[in-house]
Amino acid sequence: MNRLPLHFPMIVLFLFSLVSALKAEEHSVIHLQKDVKWIPEIIQNLDYFIDTTNSLGIEQVASLEFQEKFSHITDPHVVYGHLNDFLWIRMTVANQQQNDHYGWYFESWGYDLDEITFFSPQGESGYFPMKAGYDYPFDDRDILHKNFNYFLNIRPGETKTYFIKIRRSYPLTFSFHLRTNDNFISHSLNEYFFLGLYYGILVLILTLHVYLVIKLKENLYLFSSILIVSSIWFSLGRDGLGFQYLWPSVPWINTITNFSSLTELIVIISTLLFSYFFVQKYKKTPILKPLTVAAIAIMMGMFLNQNYGMVMDAIPYMVISFLILLVPFTIGLRSLLSIGRFSLSYTLAYVCLFLIIFHSYTRAFALFNDPILNWYFVHPVIIIEMVLFSLSILNQIKYLQEEYKKANIEKTTALEEKNRVTYEMNNRLHQKVKERTEEIENMATALAQKNVVLQTTNLKLEELNAQISNINRYLKENNDKLRSNVEEITKDMALMRGFDFEDFKKVFPNKEACLKFLSELKWQQKFVCKKCGYNKSNEDNNHGRRCKNCNYYESPTAETLFHKLKFPIEKAFYILYLSNRKDVELTLNELSEILDLRRETCWAFKNKIAQAMEKVGHNKDLSGWETLALVYLE
Prior knowledge:
Strand content: 5-15%
Radius of gyration: 46 Å
């Protein structure tokens, strides 16, 4: 039997050490060099392992014989598949710095991880686990920050290996960083500051839109407010501030906010409704309503299918969403162009919306090389979109105000023309009455002359008797006809058809117009103070008078028919106006329906008018309705 050479064990030991050294060199190591405070994007300096059994513990994964199973990471996604398996990441850090005042932190920008457990080596005690994630309450984190941050506790000259266990819901792009304590604080303050500015701007824009909702009570501004709220919710879910400040103890809201497309659905639906009411404000487009309803129904169907049926890939889902949004947008844009009201801000806002949807549905890959820019570029796009939508609304309000002014000018012109025609007709009528009166006077003069002739020519009385009889008959017929005409004209003037309530409101549109008219009527002669008898006063905004001597104030309605009136004075004016009309007899029910008043209220005021008429002996044929306004019933 041959004996092994004495130096054979030494060769075996050397080969084993060489293999171990080679394997050790395969480990990725991150070197903390001198004066370095931030090492960005360390993902390609890490190693990974996929636990397809989902049963491995840190003792087994951290064992020496297990290390050869780790593979070097070459892609920011690590792997695209294995979403149901745990992903183990190994990070070896060598601290080559001399300054022991720096504390180093590991930071993960993938804050929408379902679960992340950071294992920090504790010497002979093994590894200390720190578990967090979107499926766990926010307060479970060791460092209460919107990102996942962990203290490395590595001193100069030390080399430590850390393990990270991750469970995710989609193949996200990992963004890992190493920062010193001062760099971490500076970065956090800057990040929270700019996010505060972002949400502050959105809240200011939302305040403007809510004010428009309260002030104008239009559906357009309601859905624009919902659009802004959904954009804020969308952003809170993306940057993690919503989880940190709004629902830290309710982690299941993260699933709704980030992965069920609910926020995107609300953004799209509110945009469709906003677009519909925006276009309708300019031009009524009948086909736009069914198209908008159909688009909303399709998007809701796709949402339900995506969450409870057959899941569609992100790219086809995004393309279909674009097409659905383009159809009503194109029809609405054509309607605006047809009336020459193209809105550049409205169009660019839609472009921004497409960018937001594109970025939302393409989280599986990066749009930019810079992960910070890739993640936060959607925030300024949202602000630009909200500003552009707000500008389009303000431009529309300006346009509607101009149209309103034009309509008022046209109404005023029509009313002036109506008044002019009425004035001309009245003048003609008075002229005809004057002419007929002159004819009567002339005929009376002629008759007197003939009577003188008859008295001085008695001899011809018999001869002229027949002529006189004919003349008297002729005069009688003309007098009767003239009297009949005068009575008919007078009656037509008295019973001339007046205004209905809508026309009457154009003359007395509001309380101020009524008070002004009543004030002029009440003090048309002069003002005399009821307290001291002084005759000089000042007029206030409500058209009341305040005595310059004793400061006694008297309102226009004091000691008039409208004293202590309990309903709008413009409606009381119309009831008084109708009381002097002989051609209109409205029932209490009809009057109540026209004026939107209770039947008892109408009856009470009509009874008050009747008492006033009886008190002053009012004659409808001779007096106008305004003469009753100053009657005071104690």
